[in-house]
Amino acid sequence: MDYTIWSHILLELALSVSGEQELDKLVKKATSAFSRKLDCTHGSVLQYKSNRLEVIYAVPRVILKNPVYHEVIGEFERKLLQDEDKNVIVIEKDLNYYGFPLRNFGLLLLGRNVPIEEVFLKELLPITNMLAQNCFANLDAAMKRQTIEAELKKERHLLRVIIDTIPDLIFYKDQNGVYKVVNEAVGKFLSLLPEEINGRTDWDIHNEAEASKYRELDHRIMESGSVQRYEEWIKRHDGSLVPFETIKVPVYDAESRCVGTVAVSRDISERMEADKKIQTEKKWLEVLFKNSTDAIVRIDHNYCVEEINYSFYKLFGYKLEEIRGKDLDYVLDMGKENTANRYYTKALLSGKKIVVEGTHYTKEGLPVEVIIRGLPIIIDGELLGAYVIYNDITEHKRYEEQLKYLSSYDQLTGLYNRRFLEEEIKRLDTPRQLPVSIIMGDLNGLKLANDVFGHQEGDRLLIKAAEIIRESCRREDLIARWGGDEFVILLPQTDIKTAEEINRRIKEKCDSQKDGPVQVSIALGYAAKSRAEENIWQVLKEAEDWMYRNKLLHAKSYRNAVISSLKATLFEKSMETKEHAERLKEMCRKIGESMGLNPQQMDELELLAILHDIGKVVIQESILMKPGPLTEEEWVQMRKHPEIGYRIAQAAPELAPIAEYILSHHERWDGKGYPQGIKGEEIPLLSRILAVADAFDAMTNDRTYRKAMSREEAIAEIKRNAGTQFDPEVVSAFIESCCKSDKNFHEGQY
């Protein structure tokens, strides 16, 4: 309904009062126009008349034919038609409507309370300073508008609830920088109510610098029409700064004019903390990657090299620029097809973790035993590549092989060990292997060699003995080092005669060996099992018993041979000669007789005169034959020979009685000698006698480092040292027996 025409009609009616005729014409004209409008309307019409609100109907035939009427008014208006007294509903309340003396009217219609001002304020033009006698409104239009406005109000409320529920800061500013809309998050952040922020600018909230910055950014966005995304620190109400990520966009009206900006700012404190943590972890991983002692390589999904660490370079010898982009298997397998490694590669690139042992090769082609750990890199479900970690276990593998070797072999000689041979004896103790012979041997003089010359010489003897036995046996024979100095040879399918032949070959080879200070000598015994009912361990015991019998039988001759060998070595490598030994023996005999020694003491004194320096066999020849004075270090070595000689004598029963004398023959009467520093009569008498004779002979014979003294000078020197270096009583006996009454002395033999 066109209320603009009707308003003009009402205005003419109110202002044109020139006469009744004119008024009647106007009324008729208006009524006619209103009727036409009413007939054409698609809704019901309300009339406000003399403080009464009525429902006005058009011509009944029109009403009945008007479908819109039935939809809007429905049963309620039909009831009004049946009862004319109820066709007017009036609720009188004050309402001031644009200057009209109206009271608050409410219309109860269709079960809803519709404020009358919502009807008239939207449908009528205001008529100021006049009493409106007849005002009309289109009820249908008013009801539709009211419904729409209710929906809009509901939507506005929902939108408000939504933006207030969002924890991000949301605000809208007009083109002048005035806040028009802010959500509760903004108020909470600034410790202000939203209504306290709306209507204010940044200069009312922030400091000058910050406000200028925000305003400049708003201008830039409105002018460019661009969307800005940036991170910023916003000051909280308590002065603390909080990091935000802000998205700010321009806002346009229906005519595409920019009317302001709207921004959403999200607190990224947690994200920044998480990023910081990620960066820290990333740095840790980078440090771990670079500095790990394990070789690490990163590969892509095609198994091509992307990055390596320094340990990878050290292990395999490749620099990154040499292998970047190359197939890792191809690089580390020297271009060879390795089906096992390729299988594990496929497993890794299918997303599986792998832990395997394998062999790869360095740039120089050297094999490297490694534990390979593969860790696929999967991000958001996508396989990007993998880390491959190599732990070098080459030495560990060698150690394992060594342990495996040592579980069956003797490390020193390379022969089988006792544990292995015992298992073989059990395995081969079958009728099929008969006859089975066993040879047992014991290395003579091992303790002497260890005590006198050190374990290095003892090891040499063991290695040499193992070599002799191995050369004397057949390839199929099983040879083991049974104990410290014992050997066992297991001879399957071998009779006693063949065992005896092998025994003979071992002896002959031992006799032919002449190298080293100690001759290789092995005491041997053998036995055979020829019948199944015989006990193999008893056969071993028989061979052992025979070996010990032979050892005892030939022990003395062996020791004599060793002593003779040591004497020969001593005379060969030092200034000690047979002539020197004979002179000492003669002088010692005379001194001993002068002092009344018994026959046993005399025998021991003569043996001591010959072997007192036996310990020098282990002293370096360069020291023994040095033409000049010895250094302090060389003297330290030289002073060890009494102790070494003592150990040699202890190892041989024939020399044991003179062991203490050998140990003490460089002690002094005043206690300033070596090695024990004993003095006076604590020193054995035979050692005191030898000391005088040895000193006199040394002074009266040439040495590489000096010329000989005269006999008179030597005697004077001995007399001068009586009571300090020498026993005075022994010196007197020496002078009496060797100097005054000895014709040889006067003839210059001493």
From TrEMBL:
Domain PAS: 155-225, 281-334
Residue ranges annotated for the HD domain, each copy included: 577-699
Residues in HD-GYP domain copies: 555-750
PROSITE patterns: GGDEF, HD, HD_GYP, PAC, PAS
Pfam families assigned to the protein according to its UniProt record, in alphabetical order: GGDEF, HD_5, PAS_4, PAS_9
Domain called PAC: residue spans: 228-280
Organism per entry: Thermanaerosceptrum fracticalcis
Domain named GGDEF: residues: 434-567
Protein name: Diguanylate cyclase
